[in-house]
Amino acid sequence: MTKIRRAFARNLKTIRLEKGQTQEELAEKIGISVRYIQLLEGKNTPNVKLDTLETLAKALKVHPSDFLK
């Protein structure tokens, strides 16, 4: 996995937990499967569409770039 994907996975999980949301709650909030959230936070993070990145950021009330720091 590339460095940027590792950073994304780590930051998504960290931000989600800081916001007090479970994977299930986040998935339901944005209309995707829990399994996809698990994949995004996992060791084999798939490519993420920009639309999905933006949707996650809005749901978690962060800037999209926060996932890539």
From TrEMBL:
Q: Name one GO molecular function term.
A: DNA-binding transcription factor activity
The record's section on SUPFAM superfamilies has: lambda repressor-like DNA-binding domains
Matching entries from PROSITE patterns are given as: HTH_CROC1
| UniProt GO cellular component terms | cytosol
**Keywords for this protein:** DNA-binding, Transcription, Transcription regulation
Q: Which Pfam families would you find in this protein's record?
A: HTH_3
Q: Which InterPro entries match?
A: Cro/C1-type_HTH (IPR001387), Lambda_DNA-bd_dom_sf (IPR010982), TransReg_Diox_bact_type (IPR050807)
Q: Which residues form the HTH cro/C1-type domain?
A: 12-67
| Gene3D superfamilies tied to this protein | lambda repressor-like DNA-binding domains
Q: What is this protein called?
A: XRE family transcriptional regulator
Q: What organism, scientifically named, is this protein from?
A: Candidatus Dojkabacteria bacterium
